[in-house]
Amino acid sequence: MQLLKERILKDGTVKPGNILKVDSFLNHQMDIPFINEIGKEFKRRFAGSPITKILTIEASGIGIACIVAQYFGVPVVFAKKAQSLNLDGEMYTTKVQSFTHKKVYDVILSKKFLQPEDHVLIIDDFLANGCALQGLIEIVDTAGATLEGAGIVIEKGFQHGGDALREKGIRVESLAIVDSMSDDSLTFRA
Ligand code: G4P
Ligand code: NA
Ligand code: NA
């Protein structure tokens, strides 16, 4: 998505540890007209899929998913990160390893909100190693729902989480794939 690539080049900054900061328009301050364009683009790409629910994970995926959902006319459900689990059988649970934050956390989703008849589009802001996305996919599988694909705003292609999922046959649509980045240069996959 050309508009997004231009915005990353204009306003993104590269931080130590291969972190791309896009705080001024995507994950801290949010540029709503711009995110509306992102919503339209995901709708265009997934127009042929019978999506019934958008799934994301807290925190920064939620705002984006809500805007995207308006173009699909379906609810958003977000998985929650839990510190300690109180397992009562009413929740889907999985563990996610965060490389960025160097920890493992539990992810939970109420069984009420994901059913076998659902067709799910997962939306998230970033895809790096893909651990968060794998956790969400596992929950969709456990629910017996149909995964239509994942829509990612920015994929860090050099961390290969997206490639691994595509090799498994999962449809991963990323609006910008960063193939390399340093203090003074950033390149996108064609
Ligand atoms: P992975 O899920 O793809 O394996 O990635 P990883 O564990 O490394 O990422 C952990 C968190 O950091 C995720 O947010 C992810 O979206 C975010 N992240 C990864 N790389 C970047 C980056 O280059 N720039 C920015 N801005 N974020 C990045 P999270 O833990 O789910 O936290 P939240 O911020 O959504 O609450
Ligand atoms: Na994040
Ligand atoms: Na996120």
TrEMBL record:
Residues 49-154 form the Phosphoribosyltransferase domain. This is Xanthine phosphoribosyltransferase. Keywords: Cytoplasm, Glycosyltransferase, Purine salvage, Transferase. Converts the preformed base xanthine, a product of nucleic acid breakdown, to xanthosine 5'-monophosphate (XMP), so it can be reused for RNA or DNA synthesis. Belongs to the purine/pyrimidine phosphoribosyltransferase family. Xpt subfamily. InterPro entries: PRTase-like, PRTase_dom, Pur/Pyrimidine_PRTase, Xanthine_PRibTrfase. It is found in: Cytoplasm. Xanthine binds at L20, N27, K156. It is an enzyme of class 2 (transferase).
